[in-house]
């Protein structure tokens, strides 16, 4: 599914983020950049030890921020590691931190001259963020950034499983209804 947002293609697909041929992919990292399960573990396994070596040198990443490493053995040249919030009921600034994780990832990609970028659904796995709310925040934050910064060719989401894909598709259809390609 694709939409045109400014000069960028905004895409959604169901699949394996580690197989993306975008210039960079985004990792749902933990604050220690220590690897882990889910998307984080899959990226580290597929990318090989070079990602962990650079992550160790960086040392960590606060929630809502982003850092960048090589893509190692991945098709993507870079991995942008961002830390989404652990969901604690929604009253601890989680929405602001989740939006910040997406925004800071885009800002870092922009600064590095990256033209194509693929995100997973941040914070919706082990961190427990409700999928519908997370999808709405993710789609709105990314679309707003693309409208304000027409610097990317292609940015979107590669989602694990049909439920995540359908939830993001609904959020994108609401946010971008007039922009369907």
Task: Please supply descriptive tags for the structure shown above.
Leucine Aminopeptidase, subunit E, domain 1, single chain, 39% helix, alpha/beta, 7-stranded mixed sheet, 181 residues, 7 strands
The CATH homologous superfamily name equals: Leucine Aminopeptidase, subunit E, domain 1
Number of domains: 1
The percent of residues in helical segments reads 25-40%
What is the name of the CATH topology?
Answer: Leucine Aminopeptidase, subunit E, domain 1
Q: Main sheet, how many strands, which sense, barrel? A: 7 strands, mixed
Shape field: globular
Read across the widest sheet, the strand sequence of neighbours is: 1-2-7-6-3-5-4
The average pLDDT value, as a whole number, equals 95
Assess the beta-strand content as a share of residues.
15-25%
Number of helices: 5
| Oligomer category | single chain
How do the helices and strands line up, and which of them pair or pack?
Blueprint: E1 2-5, E2 8-14, E3 24-28, H1 38-47, H2 49-58, E4 66-70, E5 78-82, H3 94-111, E6 116-119, H4 131-148, E7 154-159, H5 162-175
Parallel strand pairs: 2-7, 3-5, 3-6, 6-7
Antiparallel strand pairs: 1-2, 4-5
